[in-house]
């Protein structure tokens, strides 16, 4: 039976694809690919798709340029990469500090994180939904490459009446993207290492404001300048303070109007 799925012409697709072709022609005129290089690329892209690494590859090597093109020079906290490891349905955690969902014996250094959410006019944003996800002390994300329970080190919580939140977690560690598939093949061939600096993913939602998807980084991390995914922004940097049996860090976040 014929495939009866109908897709109407989408003007945005026409517009974006026309632009893409125009710039691809310019790019190819300059890159001067031969047909063997083209065939190698097709075969690699086929392996990439079959491996399930397309989201990983695009989030590492393309997403940062999408964000820069759209959000550079706007007021408010800079967005950073969503990445491939976001999942819907994290548990709600409450209290001050709110303890991020983790195993009883979760390995790693204790982290206390304090933040505030306001808008570009300085108004404190109470009851902002904050999603938090990070890797564990072995460098793995739950629900993806770790054998920890689902939603380990993933939670959401809400800011208090002053827009403040306080969270207890463990320190994330630098993350190596997988090196054993087509993404790793590309990373090596292009001369990149596979590391991202330690980071915490956060997503802020408040009605009437643009949802902010961003990450927090730590001063002194050895991978800040060469992050394989180029996700680091100066305004997203925090400093770890030694408090004895835990580390403390702080950063404030500013949402833009919708
Ligand atoms: C990550 O942890 C990440 O944050 C991004 C953007 C890409 C790959 C792995
Ligand atoms: Fe990440």
Can you walk through the features of this model?
The chain has 258 residues and is α/β, with parallel strands linked by helices. It has helices at 11-31, 35-51, 54-61, 63-71, 182-189, and strands spanning 98-99, 110-119, 129-134, 154-158, 164-170, 175-176, 195-196, 199-205, 212-218, 237-238, 241-242, 247-255. The model has no long low-confidence stretch (mean pLDDT 96). Fe (iii) ion is lined by residues 83, 85, 175, 199, 201. 3-methylcatechol (MBD) is lined by residues 56, 59-60, 81, 83-85, 175, 177, 196, 229, 231.
Describe this structure in a few short sentences.
With 258 residues, the protein is of the alpha/beta class.
Average predicted confidence as pLDDT? 96
Protein structure class: alpha/beta
Query: What is the share of helical residues?
Result: 10-25%
Number of strands: 12
For the largest sheet, list the strands in their spatial order: 1-5-2-12-11
The major beta sheet can be summarized as: 5 strands, mixed
Low-confidence stretches: none
State the distance separating the first and last CA atoms.
46 Å
The SSE string, one letter per element, is: HHHHEEEEEEHEEEEEE
Keywords:
five-stranded mixed β-sheet, 12 strands, alpha/beta, binds fe (iii) ion, 258 residues, binds 3-methylcatechol
